[in-house]
Amino acid sequence: MIAEFAQVVGLVSAFVSGREASKALDMDEFLQWLSEHNHQDIKRIVEQNYTTTTSIKALLNHDLGHIKTRLEEISNQIAALSSRSDDIGDLAKEFATKVLSEQAIEILDLMDKNQTEFFLLSQEVGSDKRLILVPGPNYLCKERHFLQDDLELMLSLGLLRKDYNSNNQPMYYFTRAASNLVKTLSQTAP
Q1: In degrees rounded to 5, what are phi and psi of residue 37?
Q2: Confidence of residue 160 (pLDDT cuts 50, 70, 90)
Q3: How far apart are the C-alpha atoms of 168 and 153, rounded to whole Å?
Q4: Nearest Cα to 85, choosing from 176, 187, 154?
Q5: What is the mean pLDDT of the chain?
Q6: 81 against 29, higher pLDDT
Q7: Can you tell me the distance from the alpha carbon of 100 to that of 111, in angstroms, rounded to the nearest whole number?
C-alpha cells in the first residue's frame, strides 16, 4: 500500500514539475500523462478509487508552488522515516533533509518498552536535559544540544504529539505511528 502511495506521490510530482506555472492542472491531463508515460496500472488504481481521484483533484486545484511544497514535505517525511531501514536507509539518507537520530530512536524505543504515555522535560535549574517518562524511568539525553531538533522532527513526523499541563509545561505523548515505527525497526534489526 505504501509503495503505491509513494509511486502516486512521485508521479504527481513529476507531472507537476513538467507543467507551466501559469497553467491550470487538471485530472484528465494527469490521467493522459500517466498513459503516455506507461503507468497504466497507476492510472487504473486512480480511476477505480473515488477517494484517490478526489484527493488528486484537490491537490491539482492548488497553485503549483503549494503543490511542490506539499509534495516536498511528504517526500522528506518518507525519506526521514525510511532512513532507519536496513534495506533502503542509505538511499533514503541521500535524499532526506533530516533523519531520525539515534537519540530520537532511543527515546521512542524506551517509551514503547515502558508503555510510556508521555514525558516531560526536567525543569531543574542547571541540570542536564532529562526526560521524565510517565510511566517509565527518566532518560538522560546523550545529545542534549540536539534535543530540540529531535523533538521537532518527531513532532513533524507524527511520532510524538505535544500538549501542555496545568503549569504550561510541554507534555510529549507517544503515538501509534511511533509504536509502529519502533516495531518495524525492531523487526529489521539484526
Answers
A1: -105, 25
A2: very high
A3: 21
A4: 187
A5: 80
A6: 29
A7: 16
**CB distance 115 to 185 below 8 Å:** no
Contact indicator for 104, 98 with CB cutoff of 8 Å: no
- Distance CA(114)–CA(137), nearest Å, equals 8
Identify the DSSP state of 20: -
Residue type present at position 38 = N
55-93 per-position pLDDT tens digit:
888 877 776 677 667 766 666 666 666 655 656 555 555
Grid coordinates representing 50 are 473515488
CB 155 within 8 A of CB 105: no
Task: Give the model's pLDDT for residue 118.
Answer: 95
Q: Which long-range contacts (CB under 8 A, 24 or more apart) does 89-94 make?
A: none
Cα dihedral across residues 174, 121, 142, 145: positive or negative:
positive
C-alpha cell at 154: 518527531
Do 123 and 169 touch, CB atoms closer than 8 A? yes
